[in-house]
Amino acid sequence: MKLTRKDWVRLFLLWLGGIDLRLTMLAVPPLIPQIHHDLHLDEKGVGALVSLPVLLLATAAVPGSLLIARLGVRGALVAGLGFVAVFGAVRGLGPSTPVLFTSTFLMGVGVAVSQPAFPSIVRDWFPRRIAVATAVYSNGILIGETLPTALTTPVGALPLAHGDWRWALAMWSVLVAASAIAIALAAPARGPKPAIPARWWPSWREGQTVRIGVVMGMASAVYFATNAYIPDFLDQTGRHGLISPTLAIFNGAQLLTAPVVAIWDRLLTGRVGFMGSAALMAVAQVGIVVTPGAGILVWALVLGFAAALAFIVVLTMPPRLAAPGDVHRMSAGVFTLQYAMAFFLPLIAGAIWDATGRAVLAFVPGIIAALLMGWLALPLRIPSAAQPPAVP
Questions:
Q1: What domain range includes position 55?
Q2: In a domain, 385, yes or no
Q3: Which of 226, 231, 297, 305 minimizes the number of CB atoms within 10 Å of its CB?
Q4: Among residues 135, 105, 142, which one has the least CA distance to residue 119?
Q5: Cα–Cα distance between 389 and 392 in angstroms, integer?
Q6: CATH label of the domain that carries residue 317
Q7: pLDDT tens-digit map of 53-101
């Protein structure tokens, strides 16, 4: 079936929405050396700053499902994206650690309550083109992770802010606010009140929710831990000039997944995607630790691609597996498990670094997580990408 003009507009808005979910979160890693210096954070504090929004993605995913059930997709998006724009901007209000962490917390709440709405929009707008719509939405997320890491320093927001990391953070929220208004206007309005109240609490025993969430949690943990510790790792090993290129390549490599999946769609229909990404993540982290000089750029490319591959596979699953009206419930369950793990692993890695004083040991938990991901993915049953979901 040919895409209409309305479909193209919706795909564009899904893409913008994906960008909004990550843009303000990933503006922090390139600025870590400045924040570290001004606020005197230790490595656990750095890990907490990067991981705090991730913790909110876990703890607020279920309340986000409740918000969708009570207010509808549009209401949840207005509330969630509004929080992202406002509190993402005020994180740098004054040289204050409490202000930074409180605003980061509230921004994370906004991201968390917004994220379960997007799989529901995919199901509502494109019930028979779930793979295509998910690919567009996930590409937006990857763009949102790449733009701030590539354009915050040295040629983007930080120079425009005259070297002030506080204003550099605030600039990214302007883009979120503008695109959020368009998404909210076009998002599905709340329909008539159903005869049976909409459900919101995830069914943890239903389907493969737990296993999918845990498997994806391993990949997300590796991704966020790498973003958190690459800057200081390179700084301590005398490669400060490689911080921006490494982060840009690590996050930009995720964009390679779309053409690869388009050529070989089996990556989305079986365990190949999970198993391959797990193996690549383990090898690439070892490479980052042992490779001197600019060789780290190669391993950053491999690791970014592998983490994104697992992420895209997971995003396609709730719209395929969940019953009509339950996509947000399954998504909330998966996100809760996924991001809980993504929060705790960087903290563990930072604690190991602080306790031993050895930067290389901060990558050991990530290597173990990648190996566990491959083992846990073995029993997963992933439906065909060509198989449309049941529709009412």
A1: 5-188+203-377
A2: no
A3: 297
A4: 135
A5: 10
A6: 1.20.1250.20
A7: 777 777 777 777 777 777 777 777 888 888 898 988 888 776 677 888 8
Dist. CA 101–CA 296, nearest whole Å: 31
Report the half-sphere exposure of 378 (CA within 13 A, side-chain side).
5
Close Cβ partners of 142 (under 8 Å, ≥ 6 residues apart): 18, 22, 251, 254, 255, 257, 308, 311
- C-alpha closest to that of 228 among 21, 83, 31: 31
Amino acid in the structure at residue 131: A
Number of domains in the chain: 1
Banded model confidence at residue 301, pLDDT cuts 50, 70, 90: very high
In a domain, 391, yes or no: no
Asked if the structure places residue 366 within a domain, the reply is yes
Residue 154 is given by DSSP the state S
Q: Which residues fall within 8 angstroms of residue 63, CB to CB, at 6 or more apart?
A: 112, 113
Based on the number of CB atoms within 10 Å of its own CB, is 98 exposed (0-12), middle (13-18) or buried (19 or more)? Answer: exposed
Q: What is the dihedral of CA 114, 186, 3, 20, to 10 degrees?
A: -40
**60 to each of 53, 108, 115, 117, 335, how far by Cα in Å?**
10, 9, 10, 13, 9
Calpha distance 123→143 (Å, rounded): 22
For residues 33 and 46, the answer to whether their CB atoms sit within 8 Å is no
List all residues 6 or more positions away from 223 whose beta carbon is below 8 Å from its beta carbon.
307, 311, 342
Categorise residue 244: left if φ over 0, alpha if ψ from -120 to 50, beta otherwise.
Answer: alpha
Inform me whether the pLDDT recorded for 326 exceeds 50. yes
pTM of the model: 0.69
Q: Give a yes or no: residue 392 inside a domain.
A: no
Give the 3-state secondary structure percentages of the chain, helix then strand then coil, rounded to 5.
80, 0, 20
Cα–Cα distances (Å) from 333 to 57, 200, 202, 208, 221, in that order, read 11, 10, 5, 10, 17
Distance CA 247, CA 227 (A): 7
